[in-house]
Amino acid sequence: MAEKNVTLKLERVSKSFAKVENDEVTHALNEIDLTLNGGEFISLVGPSGCGKSTILRLVAGLIHPTTGRVAVNGNEVREPSPERSMVFQKPTLFPWLTVEKNIAFSLKMQGKLKGNEEKVEQMLRVIGLESFRRDYPGQLSGGMAQRVALVRSLISEPDILLLDEPLGALDAFTRMNMQDEILKIWHENQQLAMMVTHDVDEAIYMGTRVIVMDANPGRVVADIKIEEEYPRDRSSAVFVEYRNEILNRLHFGGRR
Ligand SMILES: Nc1ncnc2c1ncn2[C@@H]1O[C@H](COP(=O)(O)OP(=O)(O)OP(=O)(O)O)[C@@H](O)[C@H]1O
């Protein structure tokens, strides 16, 4: 399938927040310059508070830069849009809708459900919840609910998929399965994916690029292209080299 023709630019983007407790400000992001394209899978890693989620929220249009510009295909991002879909660490489902209706929700809202019912079936199969289709979110485990939240965002094939630690709360087995499922869907749709993760292996396993950030002020310290074919072998020498490079950038490099 052709790559989604999307270019996202962050141009000298800074974001400050006023602190509630005193007159100080937090420099969550300082002059971020990035150009990202459809077909890329961007992993964002860095210590707590370096501004990873802030970048996603700016791209989603949930917040605005203090200075600088965020633009998609040259158009400044001013508000949220279904073309830029966000998945949070905590699943956000509609409690009054069944699993099946939660998944179909965005297609329905965009008037695209008719003729696309098979897509809902496919998504149910992908997450292995066909037999839970008529259950409500309150009846699901945390991992199941997150799988539903994920495919609910993926189904409308957004140009930009924003993943804020979507797999953080899952057990290791489900997590690895979901990594492959997300990659499969991303590969088929060739959208621009941006994923925040605290797991360096996950960042390398999934990303075409790993962007390493540091805090105070939030900034990019490395932008590393992962030039390995999928599926990647977590134990290969190249993988281990990438891991060491990223851990060094995160100041976790030990003597070898
Ligand atoms: N709405 C807000 N009001 C005030 N400060 C905020 C707000 N949102 C973020 N911040 C501050 O901005 C900085 C960056 O936050 P952000 O959530 O982007 O970091 P992060 O890298 O995603 O962290 P974590 O890995 O812990 O999720 C932090 O110091 C945070 O306290």
Automatic annotation (TrEMBL):
Q: What is this protein called?
A: ABC transporter ATP-binding protein
The reply to whether Transport figures as a keyword in the UniProt entry is yes
Q: What is the lineage of its organism?
A: Bacteria, Bacillati, Bacillota, Clostridia, Lachnospirales
Q: Which PROSITE patterns match?
A: ABC_TRANSPORTER_1, ABC_TRANSPORTER_2
The ABC transporter domain is annotated at: 8-240
Organism encoding this protein = Bariatricus massiliensis
Keyword presence, Nucleotide-binding:
yes
Q: Which PANTHER family match?
A: ALIPHATIC SULFONATES IMPORT ATP-BINDING PROTEIN SSUB, TAURINE IMPORT ATP-BINDING PROTEIN-RELATED
Give the source's domain of life in one word.
Bacteria
One GO MF term attached to the UniProt entry: ATP binding
What keywords appear on the UniProt entry?
ATP-binding, Nucleotide-binding, Transport
Matching CDD domains: ABC_NrtD_SsuB_transporters
